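DATA SHEET
Item: assembly model
Revision: 1
Owner: S.N.
Input lines:
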Amino acid sequence: MTLIPTPITRDTCAALDADDALAPLREQFDLPPGVIYLDGNSLGVLPRATASRVQDVIRHEWGRDLIRSWNTAGWLDYPQRVGDKIARLIGAAPGEVVAADSTSVNLYKVLSVALASVRARDLDGRRRVIVSERNNFPTDLYIAESLARQHGFTLRLVEFDEIAAQLTGAAGDELAVLMLTHVHYRTGRMHPMAEVTAAAHAAGALMVWDLAHSAGAVPVDLNGCDADFAVGCGYKYLNGGPGSPAFLWVHPRHLAQAPWQPLSGWMGHAAPFEFTPGYRPAAGVTGFLCGTPSAIALAALECGVDTVLAAEAHGGMAAVRGKSLALTDLFGALVAQRCAGHGLTLHTPTDTAQRGSQVSLYREEGAYPIVQALIARGVIGDYRAPGILRFGFTPLYLRFVDVWDAVEHLVQVLQTGEWREERFNQRAAVT
Amino acid sequence: MTLIPTPITRDTCAALDADDALAPLREQFDLPPGVIYLDGNSLGVLPRATASRVQDVIRHEWGRDLIRSWNTAGWLDYPQRVGDKIARLIGAAPGEVVAADSTSVNLYKVLSVALASVRARDLDGRRRVIVSERNNFPTDLYIAESLARQHGFTLRLVEFDEIAAQLTGAAGDELAVLMLTHVHYRTGRMHPMAEVTAAAHAAGALMVWDLAHSAGAVPVDLNGCDADFAVGCGYKYLNGGPGSPAFLWVHPRHLAQAPWQPLSGWMGHAAPFEFTPGYRPAAGVTGFLCGTPSAIALAALECGVDTVLAAEAHGGMAAVRGKSLALTDLFGALVAQRCAGHGLTLHTPTDTAQRGSQVSLYREEGAYPIVQALIARGVIGDYRAPGILRFGFTPLYLRFVDVWDAVEHLVQVLQTGEWREERFNQRAAVT
């Protein structure tokens, strides 16, 4: 907990904003008026640069220069260029990351290679288990389930507290791959990446990380942790826009001897413009590309990544992390101070070492309509079944007074009971 | 050959334009001044509607409405909505097509299901051969090679003239899947879809079509031909923009009993927002989705598809096809009339039934620099190794006088020998 005087007032929050070295970064974004946006962990907000950059791609690179832009505008190596920028945020080196496809498709690629790599050295076939968390983000589980079925592995889903037991003894001997999401999408709980990776390696397994809720939100050091593979999302804390291309990272030791990744499209070929049959994977992480890159979508993603890289001039990811924890601490403290007796419990670890950049609250009844009532007031968080009110805190554009104001609305929603209104209880397709 | 008086003059061409019912469709596009664009088979031109529509998605749907747009702007079913529009161009019904991912990724999905389907009914394991053309577009071959390796099939590559022999006798008994690109990317040769599909079925095999050079260019009737699966590209004749999402089609008989497609991401799940482990594929073609759709890229693709659908008011794909053949006939006739003695030979069938919407010329020497010299003059075609000058003809925005002017430039390039200049002989990364 940041040392701030209690009880906390709105003036306390304004003073924190006045002291905030990252405050100027908010100017990078087009924030809609009247909105306090606590959902950057689902869809990041629009950077100011994006609209005009995308217009430039559409009107000039595509409209005017047409096919020539593959060469002159650098469309061809756009996945690698944006990948190199993302690399700076996750402790990766240039040439180790590409931005392409979706998180699910990228997970399919790296997990396939991870399983093939285990098979290649585990000749007696004992390591045939993929372990993950039962309530990991489902798309990761669905992809792992598919690959397990195809290649004769078992996907074993365990609770958070049961992971350690999977890394030792007989279970550890069976473990092929440990696949975890670094920061949990629902609880905001963060795994200690270095420690878990080391334990997976000690068990003889490979480590695959999903950085969907980490990249751009918390410091990540993939090479420092000696992880094996990682994937992540472009449209959350990287602000790349709805359905933005995702990214993947491969440790150099797996690039040196990479078995084919199965999505062997032409952009991953060593010489795509020779138009020859017979797949020969390109050297390095380029071999993990598949189809033709979307120049428009990559331009939007690059603008988003640039908003995070802009923090490098203000203390970098360490400063982002400091503010993130201050924001989430403040939110937790204000909920405790002002919402007591309303049935809310904290669902995110109080220990900052175990917390990502979000706070989830739990309420047995009414979590969904309370979130809807808040959204109607301009405080945008989201609901995740069962019973979770989820709030993401993006240090690049959130102010401490926003946290105060959000909690003020929450207090009012709870005190008035307005969340019981019919209109807040109608479920939308996407929650 | 269209019956037009010879020798053809520029006035002949202007008269054809004056008679052209599709001429108004050209107004849908932002064509750069001074350019004759004969490369719409590689990257379609920019529709006028695209820039403002994409701005609307960025500024309003994303920037202002943020996460709410998953419901309010229909982002969630955007792949199905654009898919239903594409369906109208390829003889498919609503609910049979989705726009998503890349052509390569989509081919991976449908070919996986095709192979699984063959396996399920071929219990003695005799059908284990995938046949395709040796010089089919390489990404298709690379994906098929990957799946063949994974699932114990053989990819057999044959010449065009050898395909028929693969569909009968002992070869036919081994055939699992015939996978062809309907219109060949290099030669422009078009397979008779109904006939080839029937022959594949008669051999007991499944038929997978790649419509990359067909959708929006030539009439296609997938259901009428009783094909099994198809994929296609969004950024060629559909004008969806560089690296646009691609599409896939699945015949309803394969949807009723679909084995899992392997890229089982959350958007293909029956209830993605229940966030439950255990993949259950969604009913219908939705089960062929994988990751989160890109709203920005799909908006651009929709604008492109709409430019083709606009032809429905002017005779539809039949009228588009009529003009396409008139344009390619004219080009062939003018090359014959005006470029004789310059070493060019026609590499595209003269029989209109076997021709897509492009004309490829072959020249033993200088094909690459001749294309570059034409591009420098504003006539944009492209080069494909070995020796091919490739020209695509998009009836929506090309005029008959454009064909005349393009050939006039070709005549000048050949007569002056300017293509021998050093600057036209330097190879770019993308050709």
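QC remark: The first helix of chain B runs from residue 10 to 18.
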